[in-house]
Amino acid sequence: MAVDLEPGWLNVLGSEFEKPYMKALKEFLQNEKRQGFTVYPKGTDIFNAFKHTPFDKVKVVILGQDPYHGVAQAHGLSFSVQKGIIPPPSLKNIYKELEDEIVGFKIPNHGDLTQWADQGVLLLNATLTVRAHQAGSHQKRGWEQFTDQAIAKLSQLKSGLVFILWGNYAKQKESLIDENKHFIIKSAHPSPFSAYNGFFGSKPFSKTNEILIREGKEPINWQLT
Length: 225
Hints:
Layout: H1 7-13, H2 20-34, E1 39-40, H3 48-52, E2 60-64, H4 89-101, H5 114-117, E3 121-125, E4 130-131, H6 143-157, E5 162-166, H7 167-171, E6 183-187, H8 204-214
Parallel strand pairs: 2-3, 2-5, 5-6
Antiparallel strand pairs: 1-4
């Protein structure tokens, strides 16, 4: 596991890589490969969220739980899949909400959300790796400690960020966020199991842009090309 962080993130999170939990996590990942398991995403994509959204550029945070565990899906951004891969059900529901919410939004023919990340939307999963075809297989191995620290540092060192928390797992991260300095948008998860229980119609994308404009920041262009 190479430490491939953007300099701003390395400045606030670099010390984490020297801690025992991260060394144990590195050993765990090496052992997975020694045993012949395929791990997603590929090594160079594990820290993609941090690479595409530098610490100083973060405006919005969308929290996910786990990388996708299917072939060639995950590439280090929450809810996003690589081009050429059919968007999973949760992402299809995100697009449906965008179509209903944002005037003129057209559902793209791919599921790659990199354009959001490059505009300052940190697409952060709590766990950054997974064993192929085994959902949740790398949970509680140390990644959560690392990503919790990332959220805490954003909360501590920045102000006026929008945190989008979908579903109960993401809502547990609320305790890491200073609500006096930041904005939190919460709803049900876009999964087909819960989307109709409060995700559809929650308008997270227009609400986010309203906040950014109010804060004197450039709104996000949610349209993907």
